TrEMBL record:
Organism ancestry: Bacteria, Pseudomonadati, Pseudomonadota, Gammaproteobacteria, Moraxellales
PANTHER family linked: QUINONE OXIDOREDUCTASE PIG3-RELATED, QUINONE OXIDOREDUCTASE-RELATED
Record's keyword terms, sorted: NADP, Oxidoreductase
Name of this protein: NADPH:quinone reductase
The keyword Zinc-finger is annotated on this UniProt entry: no
A cellular-component GO term for this protein: cytosol
GO MF entry, a single one: quinone reductase (NADPH) activity
Enzyme Commission no: 1.6.5.5
Species the sequence originates in: Acinetobacter bouvetii DSM 14964 = CIP 107468
Domain of life of the source: Bacteria
Entry-linked Pfam families: ADH_N, ADH_zinc_N
Catalytic activity: 2 a quinone + NADPH + H(+) = 2 a 1,4-benzosemiquinone + NADP(+)
Entry's family note: Belongs to the zinc-containing alcohol dehydrogenase family. Quinone oxidoreductase subfamily.
Amino acid sequence: MTLNQAVRFNEAGAPDVMYLENIEVGEPAAGQVRVRHVAVGLNYADTYFRDGTYKITLPNGMGVEASGVVDAVGEGVSNVQVGDRVTYTGFINTLGAYSTARLVDANVLIKLPEGISCETAAAMTMRGLTSAYLMRRIYDFKKGDTILLHAAAGGVGLIVSQWAKLLGLTVIGTTSSEEKAAIARAHGCDHVINYSHENVAERVRELTNGVGVNVVFDSVGKDTFMSSLDSLKRRGLLVCVGTASGPIPDFNPVLLAIKGSLFITRPALADYIADPAEKQALADEIFGHVSSGRIKIEINQRYALKDAVQAHRDLEARKTTGSSIFVI
């Protein structure tokens, strides 16, 4: 009998609330499949479940993204069969991905095309689908537009910057170190601002001849909110895609008028993959770019499930670049 394990936690808190335990997976019910994982994605969103930012019922499992092979299917499942390589991501409906195997609803699965390994899929399904909706659904980009991309050396940042270059955009990235700046430049950033010792908004104005950028993608939150607004051109768009430094402060919407009739949105991946057809279209587009080599996925950190606590510590200390995965 195969020994299965999963990372779980009983209370919200620091990384050390997580622990690894032996589990029984069982047989899939109607509409479910059993997936034997090959690799599991590590995402910053995982820390929001763990620290209580996202409210969930506890105790619970950890992680929302993984890839592997279907080894059993329940009654009524027709979209996948035993032996298919699959990947998935989601929100509460896929919580529990930090595991060697699990039961999951068949309707969340995406079949992997040839040329995409399970490790690559675990490193890019959430980040890739996020990048896809950011580049294809949020704003009608035109060649020559300029974007400001915070955390440019992160997993989403590296994909977005490469995709932006395919669309003919100018990319200004921000990083916290020269090492990360070099990584960002290698993946398409035209200019990189080191926010550790440069004023982001002032530097953006210099680089854009005082005009500002069309769109800011801000995954940092509290620490960058005002500089993001100050980096936008008149009627520009701030896309708040994360809060790594904490939630953005409360503000009076008149601030948007004062700073140039700005727009702001806080999208969630779940709303862009809720429709199966749209999810498949976004998946086909990002998988196509990766399969062809137009976009490269950088897996720069690999962990074992037993090292989940350290993985979260590294992630929150901003020690990681590119994508991170757990290898089963």
